[in-house]
Amino acid sequence: MNLDFTFLKEDQIWGDDALEVMKKYGTKVAPTDLTVILGVCMSGMSGWGELYYNYKGYLACTTPEGDLTCGSWSASSGEDGSVRCVGYNGYNYCYLPNVRISSAHPALPQKEASKISPSEAKVIDGIRVAEYGEYPQTVADERTSEKLERLHGSNSLRSTGKNYTFDSVELENYDTPFKAISYPEYEMDGKRYIRVPGRPADDDSKLSTGEQVEEGKPYWVEVQPIEWLMDRSGTMVARKCLFAGIQFDTKSSYDGDFKGTFMKHYLDTYFAKEMQPLERTNVKENSTKKTDDDPATKRIKKIKEQMLRTIAAENVSPQKGVVKRKRSDAEKQIIKAALDSASKGIGR
């Protein structure tokens, strides 16, 4: 089932009519490790973070949980054709739509959210936080990453058949449109990961481990359930920003029509599909289970019948002077057992 994902509008984020979850949880949003790896402008105390601190006179770069925050898109337009965004400190600012260093903070309107049954996860400051779907989010620890990289290098990792799609165009290239690049999902020790090269957006691109993202270094990111803030209105809002490095639109100006943007196309074409879990049990069964109509099964049955007919024919008189030795009952039983074993092997 593909859901109609969107971004929140500015009146849902700020002001008296804002969603209750935004008022309670706050407007500052933290990125997942994947979002940082893909390239989002962060809020640490170097570069832009330091300038923002000096300009505003206060430091507001973390969520209530202490996570570094990042900028994220809204669905509203700003001044002079820009896109209204949520800043590092939760206040509004603007980006031109063709930049790639802001991030995605998906939401599901009540009409779409009513179609699903998310599982309850926890309560934070009176806000229900539920789980629905899955997406690469947290970087694997050093030991796990080394093991994954070693197995990947020897082609020993099992692919699940699922892929996640992002943009391969460099962050600073505003004029080149989206070029899809897919990263396969692998499974190891009951968990699933993708391997993504780092492309930091700034000097504050730090992972949850505290590690600075390095350009081109491969990172193993674990696929995990997506957490959603459940608003009383029925709207669901992702707890974290889930991806970055994607242009809001290929145009340099935004008129407020979110449905006409490239970002909406990306949400519909890639995110809405890839955040849905694979039917892994069915996929495994379908790929291995053989039926009576399977060509291999038919062949083995035909061979078995031919062999049995041959065995039976050996009890008939020799033809044209050719002397045939009759097989003993023990030999016949061995042949029959081998054929039965082969037939069962094909059916596994």
Explain the layout of strands and helices.
Elements lengths: L9 H4 L6 H6 L7 H6 L9 H9 L15 E6 L5 E4 L5 E4 L7 E2 L2 E2 L1 H4 L5 E6 L2 E13 L2 H12 L4 E10 L12 E9 L2 E7 L20 E13 L5 E3 L4 E2 L17 H13 L5 H9 L6 H19 L15 H19 L1
Describe it.
This protein has 348 residues and is α+β, with helices and mostly antiparallel strands. It has 2 domains: 10-283, no CATH class; 290-347, no CATH class. Helices cover 29% and strands 23% of the residues. The protein is built from 10 helices and 13 strands. It has helices spanning 10-13, 20-25, 33-38, 48-56, 110-113, 142-153, 262-274, 280-288, 295-313, 329-347; strands at residues 72-77, 83-86, 92-95, 103-104, 107-108, 119-124, 127-139, 158-167, 180-188, 191-197, 218-230, 236-238, 243-244. Strands 5, 6, 7, 8, 9, 10, 11 and 12 form an 8-stranded antiparallel beta sheet that branches. A 3-stranded antiparallel beta sheet has the order 1-2-3, with no helix packed on it. Strands 4-13 form a two-stranded antiparallel ribbon. Strand 2 (83-86) and strand 3 form a beta hairpin. Helix 9 packs antiparallel against helix 10 (329-347). Residues 45-58, 281-291 and 315-324 have low confidence and may be disordered.
Keywords for this entry:
single chain; 348 residues; alpha+beta; 2 domains; 8-stranded antiparallel beta sheet; 3-stranded antiparallel beta sheet; 10 helices
Strand percent estimate: 15-25%
How many helices? The count is 10
Span between termini: 31 Å
Write down the overall mean pLDDT.
Answer: 84
Total number of domains: 2
Secondary structure class reads alpha+beta
User: How does the major sheet shape up?
Assistant: 8 strands, antiparallel
The helical percent reads: 25-40%
Please mark out the parts with pLDDT under 50 across 5 or more consecutive residues, or reply none: 45-58, 281-291, 315-324
H-E string:
HHHHEEEEEHEEHEEEEEEHHHH
- Rough shape? globular
The Cα radius of gyration reads: 29 Å
Per DSSP E runs of 2 or more residues, the count of β-strands stands at: 13
